Amino acid sequence: MRIMGLDFGSKTVGVAISDPLLLTAQGLEIIRRKEANKLRRTLARIEELILEYDVEEIVLGLPKNMNATEGERVALTEEFRDKLERRTGLNVVMWDERLTTVAADRAMTEAGIRGERRKEYVDMIAASLILQGYLDRRAAGK
Fold first, then answer.
1. CB contact at 8 A, 9 and 73
2. Mean pLDDT of successive 10-residue segments in the chain (142 residues)?
3. pLDDT number for residue 37
4. pLDDT of residue 101
5. Neighbours of 12 (CB within 10 A)
6. Contact 60/8 with Cβ under 8 angstroms?
7. What gap in Å lies between CA 84 and CA 58, rounded to an integer?
8. What pLDDT score does 65 carry?
9. Cα separation of 105 and 76, whole Å?
10. All residues at 6 or more sequence positions from 55 whose CB lies less than 8 Å from its CB, including other chains
11. CB atoms within 10 A of CB 130
């Protein structure tokens, strides 16, 4: 069994996967789409990864504002969650993703990744941070 972490953006979805022991999260890929509302291929790719990695649960980043209010991105993310649950039949846990992009940027700076290459990785790293936070909380029994 594994858990998948997703960072849902307007034109990308960062994907991370746990190890089989549910201890660590690893970035897997970034699914890109040309238009924000075109999700059919995105959902199909997520389904392929679920089967390939024997995923039994999904953690989806919830993009609350820094003051904990919910804006338009939260509503779009909740719609995506509903589509994921209907299509996959899996439980989708919403996880507060505030500051994950900041932490992803910091990790890339520390790793020496510069400029345009950062955009290639930020969503996948953010998905890993979302999933790792969830795994850590789960392991602590909270």
1. no
2. 94 95 95 86 96 97 70 87 96 84 70 69 86 92 70
3. 76
4. 66
5. 18
6. yes
7. 9
8. 58
9. 24
10. 1, 2, 3, 4, 17, 49, 90
11. 25
How high is the pLDDT of residue 78? 94
pLDDT at 142: 59
The one-letter amino acid code at 68 reads A
For helices 72-88 and 40-53, give the axis angle rounded to 10 degrees: 50
Residues in the chain: 142
CATH topology of domain 2-139: Nucleotidyltransferase; domain 5 (3.30.420)
Q: What is the DSSP string of the chain?
A: -EEEEEEE-SSEEEEEEE-TTS--EEEEEEEE-SSTT--HHHHHHHHHHHHHHTEEEEEEEE---TTS---HHHHHHHHHHHHHHHHH--EEEEEE-TTHHHHHHHHHHHHT--THHHHHHHHHHHHHHHHHHHHHHHHTT-
Quickly tell me which residue has 């994921």 as its tokens: 84
pLDDT of amino acid 114: 72
Q: What is the pTM of this model?
A: 0.87
**Residue 101, both tokens:** 């992009």
